[in-house]
Amino acid sequence: MLGWRFKRWEPGTEPDARFEDLLEIFRQLLLYTAGNVGEAISWMTELDRTYNFTSDDYGMADFLNDLIEKGYVNPAGSRENPLKFHLSSKMEVHLRRTALDEIFDDLSKSGRGNHDTRFSGRGDEETSELRPYEFGDSIDKISLPDSLKNALISRGINDLSLRQEDLEIRETYYKTQTSSVLMIDISHSMILYGEDRITPARKVAMALSEFITTRYPKDTLDIIVFGDDAWPVEIKDLPYLKVGPYHTNTVAGLELAMDILRKKKNPNKQILMITDGKPTCIKQGRGYYKNSFGLDRKILTRTLSLAHKCRKLNIPITTFMIATDPWLVDFVDQFTKANAGKAFYSSLDNLGEFVFKNYKK
């Protein structure tokens, strides 16, 4: 006899239910431990002693074995020494996808690969349509075969000469592809005063990278971190970002971002900067000029100068400020005016919402 057999459902009794529940706790702890498997397992063990979320038939050792067997962690040592475990690429992808789901779970499925725009004009994506040459048109858009054909029809082979009225231009669309650089502040102030600001910044970076690569595949995203200096990081490095004993060299971050964007052929470029404080450091010769007290005029001038330079290059900077001190807000206002960009004064809870809403515009 064909049919369905029903029985009473009890939470946590499915084969993988207990593992999935513990995996969610483990994932959250990985965000706070910057991808340190051993530290996350240690925290889980302490939490288990307090809240008893494992059972007699499924303990922490079973969970660790499942993590290995399901390919979420790779053992670099023995099972008895989880401090030597490290995340697999599968877990890195899982962290990015779940971060995206948490921050932007109502993301529209439409518009894959393009940003909405109300503007039209000279673009860089050629079509099959032609039009007569107009003063100011780019020379590389001239269709030589069609232009020569017009000259032959007008004057024949014996008097072949190419004139302005013969020239045909290949029409282009305004392409809304965007090249973005995400700058993340990893200076020591990101964990000062008992407030963890690097974890939400790290989470937003993972979600944004997954968002762009899956929903806007024509776009490019480069991620850099800045402290005393600035350097690029790969998407796979995002779960492991840590704050260092650094000052805030915003100038170094902006210079690196500009160098990256200068190499992009795409006409639409932007810089997204997540920070919580003022610039306190610039490179001077082989050393550094640092001042952690107030806004140093020398550092401020260099920073505002770069903001103005980005404006001339048509590179808007959007600053996500996760601090609300009045004098820091005043600095961000000056910086935003110099660049004609945008600024969001965000709490740690709504940082992701502001970043994603701004990116989709």
Protein topology:
Blueprint: H1 17-32, H2 37-51, H3 60-69, E1 73-75, E2 85-87, H4 89-103, E3 125-132, H5 144-155, E4 168-173, E5 179-185, H6 198-215, E6 220-226, E7 230-233, H7 250-262, E8 269-275, E9 281-284, E10 287-290, H8 297-312, E11 317-321, H9 326-339, E12 342-345, H10 351-360
Parallel strand pairs: 5-6, 5-8, 8-11, 11-12
Antiparallel strand pairs: 1-2, 3-4, 6-7, 9-10
Helix pairs in contact: 1-2, 4-6, 6-10, 7-8, 8-9
Overview of the molecule:
- The chain is built from ten helices and twelve strands.
- The protein is of the alpha/beta class and 361 residues long.
- Helix 9 links the parallel strand 11 and strand 12 (342-345).
Classified by CATH, the class of the largest domain is Alpha Beta
Distance between the ends: 57 Å
Oligomer: single chain
The percent range for strand residues is 15-25%
Basic shape: flat
Number of strands: 12
Roughly how many Å is the radius of gyration?
Answer: 27 Å
Structural domains: how many: 3
Could you give me the name of the CATH homologous superfamily of the largest domain? von Willebrand factor, type A domain
